[in-house]
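Following the same procedure, the fold was encoded as tokens, giving this record:
***
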Amino acid sequence: MKRLQLGTISLVLLLIILTKSSTTNAVEDDSVKNEESDKEEQNHVPNSTSSYGIEIVGEMEEDEWEMVQKRGNQFVVNEKPFYINGFNTYWLMVFAVDESTRGKVTEVFQQASSVGMTVCRTWAFNDAQWRALQKSPSVYDEDVFKALDFVVSEAKKYKIRLILSLANNWEAYGGKAQYVKWGKDAGLNVSSDDDFFSHPTLRTYYKNHVKTVLNRVNTLTNITYKEDPTIFAWELMNEPRCTSDPTGDKLQDWIQEMAFHVKKIDAKHLVEIGVEGFYGPSTPHRTQFNPNSYATQVGTDFIRNHQVLGVDFASAHIYADSWISQQISESHLEFITSWMKSHIEDAEKHLGMPIIFAEFGVSSKDPGYNATYRDNLITSVYKTILNSTKKGGSGGGTLLWQVFPEGTDNMDDGYAIVLSKSPSTSAVVSLQSSRLALFNSMCSSKFQWSCKKKKVIYDPHDEF
């Protein structure tokens, strides 16, 4: 998304934005300098985020839709900061295969866009399962690939960029277990699912899949995936773990090879690993931030993993209800803040890159769950990101797990948020989007934080 420089045109636009915001009581003249309570702010959130300038993003010219890049610890588009409020919807490709369910893909993009969300993380894999993309090694279902083409094409219509994950650690949608099964069927001497990371033939299977996806020419847009700015980044794997090697060496070697492989094919797009963010043996002084002792034994190592050449930004997930206790507790919010702050600090001091908290949420199936707690949790995550954003820190953004349209209850794992049925949550999301949109439009990057004060308009360093 191309952002205008802060010249005359930009100032006029910003004055219009802020004036319009004032007339709708969404942002009053002194609300930037004197922060009201979150509850009061949410009551002033308009139904449309266009008051905050998000509508302007949607009207950008075709030739201004350019690649997201990384400069130091910031994401940038056309030399402008690009802070992210996004979401996950993993099943988009599978739903897009059939005309009877394809409309749900459009619906989720419409709803997410209406509250200002700009990035979606979804699967670019489905191995030997129902509506499989890859039916066997390097054998693809063209109809499913066309469905993925539709997802990419439809995302662009709503100015939503995609993080495409290329494999799964878990058995859902095939995962590393399916690669091992393929190996067994081919007569390979493999037994553990973790052989996926080490056996040369299984590595080749994966690398061939990467090559096929990255070199895919979209049948709807005629744009090769590796040339398409709609794709924000490639994710090597969803939540990789290698419990057979707690030292982390096996997974580290796999990350090194695969990050290089992706970059060799596509040097333009960003690459991330997809890990959950657990600290490992290389940083024993940081393991105190892990949610439990088991987290140090799953073969991942947050800082070491992200020091690999070719990895552009860090990822971490946040699941206090899964990692600590299922029972809802205020202590979960304390963990979340501590977890996020430690990772943002490490991304700044040790990695020199942005970090995205690529999954976070709370399950409605948890004992003690209620919508107010969910809104408080989301608000807590958003506040922590904003505290980094205001300083030009490494907190690059967050992705809710997960946003669904109506009529997809059968896919809900308990974490689904249907925005049209959740007005209070929608207000929280919309407010975060509006705040980040203002940062993105009003700040000049020069590859570091450089928001310039405008005497009568806006001081971005003031408290919200």
Q: What stands out?
A: The first helix runs from residue 8 to 23. The domain at 69-442 is CATH 3.20.20.80 (TIM Barrel). The first strand starts at residue 69 and ends at 71. The two ends are 25 Å apart (CA to CA).
